[in-house]
Design goal:
CATH architecture of the largest domain: Alpha-Beta Complex
Largest sheet: 6 strands, mixed
Order of helices and strands: HEHEEHEEHHHHHEEHHEEHEEH
Number of helices: 12
Shape: globular
Bound molecules: guanosine-5'-monophosphate, manganese (II) ion
Strand content: 15-25%
Number of strands: 11
Strand order of the largest sheet: 6-7-8-9-11-10
Radius of gyration: 19 Å
Oligomer: single chain
Number of domains: 2
CATH class of the largest domain: Alpha Beta
Structural class: alpha/beta
Distance between the termini: 40 Å
Mean pLDDT: 95
CATH topology of the largest domain: inorganic pyrophosphatase (n-terminal core)
CATH superfamily of the largest domain: inorganic pyrophosphatase (n-terminal core)
Length: 323
């Protein structure tokens, strides 16, 4: 951590980036570290390949995120947050790799330790927790915008303090963030209480799609493009749906298969699927996701796959035989 701080203190323009389809931790930890560095007089650019989901746009300064960066030569340092590997940032990975210093800050067990410096703590409940410690060590005062960002990162990555990554530090840091200006009701209201009616209808279809393995230990939820069209919703509306499949009694592994269209330029579009996996603590889904080219944590992981839906489902249902 000391070497990272020393480097940042003397660094020129800094790029802050996190993963595609950003969640509360990706956005919260990016804003927190970026704003802290800005208060030290640093020139900071925030990058995210996908648009910020509507429920996170209440975060102050989130409108500063840009969806394109053209040239690596405008930056001296890139800080990559909440990404198990550098390709999680999306298409800009090839540009970011050329930035002279890449700093990798993450809490995923499958992290590939890319970059010139890495700050990885797999016991941290969220990347926002690691960023909190870094900001403290840098002696930067935490203003209310930084506090709201860190609070949101921890609240969302712990599923509102329900998931197995929730620990006493999650509460201790959040308590401090509340004292520094994060309003828990307001954040919860924005994140969980501002859904469109379409999203609720999509949830209805998603719940209806749940299939259970013969032994009852594995559940699969499927969300298709057709469901998005029928309900006028987008993939980021699916955030959190998998918890319904996971919450069924006896279920040890829950999967959510999300159909997505991949843009192949002038060759048109093709179908691709993102599979999210959740488990109780008895099964390591991070290993399963890594096997399929993805990654994550032992109890929450994911991967992308391009093969027919029926084949993907049968691969997933096969996992139930080992449960
Ligand atoms: P989710 O299911 O919410 O998309 O992701 C669960 C966890 O797995 C997150 O921590 C996320 O960063 C990680 N994850 C999801 N998809 C991928 C993937 O395609 N590659 C990698 N390396 N990690 C993933
Ligand atoms: Mn995270």
């Amino acid at each position: 951590m000391d070497k990272i701080i020393q480097h940042l203190q003397q660094s020129g323009p800094i790029l802050i980036a996190s993963h595609i389809n950003p969640d509360g931790d990706a956005i919260g930890s990016s804003l927190a570290i970026g704003l802290a560095l800005e208060s030290l007089g640093k020139h900071v650019t925030f990058y995210t390949e996908s648009p910020i989901p509507a429920v996170y746009r209440f975060l102050p300064e989130s409108d500063r995120m840009v969806e394109e960066i053209n040239a690596e030569n405008q930056f001296q340092t890139a800080i990559i947050l909440d990404c198990g590997d550098i390709y999680r940032v999306g298409d800009a990975a090839s540009i970011i790799e050329k930035i002279p210093t890449v700093i990798n800050i993450d809490h995923h067990i499958t992290n590939t330790k890319f970059g010139n410096y890495s700050l990885i703590d797999t016991t941290a409940c969220a990347t926002a927790e690691i960023v909190y410690r870094l900001i403290k060590k840098m002696n930067v005062p935490i203003n209310n915008v930084i506090a709201i960002s860190i609070y949101t990162g921890i609240m969302t990555d712990t599923g509102s303090f329900r998931f197995s990554n929730t620990n006493k530090d999650s509460f201790a840091i959040c308590e401090e963030m509340i004292a520094l200006g994060a309003d828990p009701y307001l954040v919860a209201q924005y994140v969980y209480g501002t859904y469109s009616l379409g999203r609720i209808k999509l949830l209805n279809r998603a719940i209806d799609s749940i299939e259970i393995s013969k032994n009852g230990k594995l559940s699969v939820m499927t969300v298709t493009e057709e469901m998005f069209d029928e309900t006028n919703t987008k993939p980021d509306d699916v955030d959190g749906f998998i918890n319904y499949a996971k919450g069924i009694e006896d279920v040890k592994i829950a999967a959510l298969i999300l159909e997505q269209h991949k843009n192949n330029g002038n060759k048109g579009t093709s179908k691709t699927y993102h599979v999210s996996l959740r488990s109780d603590e008895t099964v390591d889904v991070g290993e399963i996701a890594t096997f399929y080219g993805g990654g994550g944590h032992s109890t929450a992981a994911g991967f992308s796959i391009e093969s027919p839906l029926a084949g993907i489902k049968s691969k997933i249902f096969n996992l139930a035989n080992k449960l």
